[in-house]
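Hypothesis: this fold can be encoded by more than one sequence.
Test: take the structure tokens below, design a sequence, compare later.
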């Protein structure tokens, strides 16, 4: 039997009378890549924000590894092992790629990140940081300032800093957004490699990326679940086709 790592029941979010997420039920199986797709305005990012507690739901329940996390704060959810990336890459541009990852690894020091200390005091993190850079294909850029990386490599660096938290569930928000084709291919290869030993839930517009990576897909429109299943099934659903043709404006 499959194990459910993340589950929502009746998850909803309303803003001043507008319902952005409407009674969404999700079941994410451990060890899978699950994609959340839908037309613009379908509620995908709002749903991500609810799962990671950047927004509090108006109604519904969220279970992570069997624990109710509905009312927890974002930091508490991250500490339990559900960590996300964002649509806009967030890195420290003036620091090297190695230093960016090393900062993320300092979580074991509690609330102190030691920005004021000599970098020599943090060299014990270097081996793990270099290993993470290798995992995301950035080993040759360890000493490169993050600001000098291409957009695709900045996204890879952000994923490396996310992996520093060693999350069993990784949420990727538009991991290939705004990328040229070579960078898209690089990120797809990276995500495929990272799936070993972890579960990935991603929001993604690029359907070729979704079809090549996902084990299961949930389609949202107007904040509701329109369809769910493997790509081969969902992509042939008349309601899904209609939504993506634009007849159903989300």
């Amino acid at each position: 039997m499959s194990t459910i790592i993340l589950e929502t029941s009746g998850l909803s979010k309303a803003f001043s009378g507008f319902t952005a997420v409407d009674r969404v039920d999700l079941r994410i199986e451990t060890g899978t890549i699950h994609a959340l797709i839908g037309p613009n305005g379908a509620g995908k990012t709002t749903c991500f924000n609810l799962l990671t507690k950047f927004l509090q739901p108006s109604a519904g329940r969220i279970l992570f590894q069997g624990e109710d996390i509905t009312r927890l704060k974002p930091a508490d959810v991250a500490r339990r092992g559900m960590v996300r990336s964002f649509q806009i890459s967030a890195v420290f541009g003036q620091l090297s790629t190695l230093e960016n990852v090393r900062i993320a690894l300092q979580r074991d020091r509690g609330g102190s990140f030691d920005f004021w200390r000599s970098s020599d005091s943090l060299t014990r993190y270097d081996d793990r940081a270099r290993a993470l850079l290798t995992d995301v294909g950035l080993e040759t850029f360890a000493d490169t300032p993050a600001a000098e990386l291409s957009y695709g490599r900045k996204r890879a660096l952000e994923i490396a800093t996310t992996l520093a938290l060693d999350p069993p569930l990784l949420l990727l928000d538009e991991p290939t957004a705004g990328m040229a084709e070579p960078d898209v291919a690089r990120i797809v290869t990276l995500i495929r490699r990272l799936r070993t030993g972890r579960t990935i839930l991603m929001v993604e517009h690029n359907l070729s990326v979704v079809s090549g990576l996902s084990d299961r897909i949930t389609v949202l429109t107007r904040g509701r679940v329109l369809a769910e299943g493997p790509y081969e099934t969902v992509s042939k659903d008349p309601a899904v086709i209609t939504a993506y043709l634009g007849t159903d404006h989300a």
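Strands lie at 4-15, 18-29, 33-37, 59-64, 67-68, 82-84, 169-173, 199-203, 216-221, 224-229. The first strand starts at residue 4 and ends at 15.
Hypothesis status: open.
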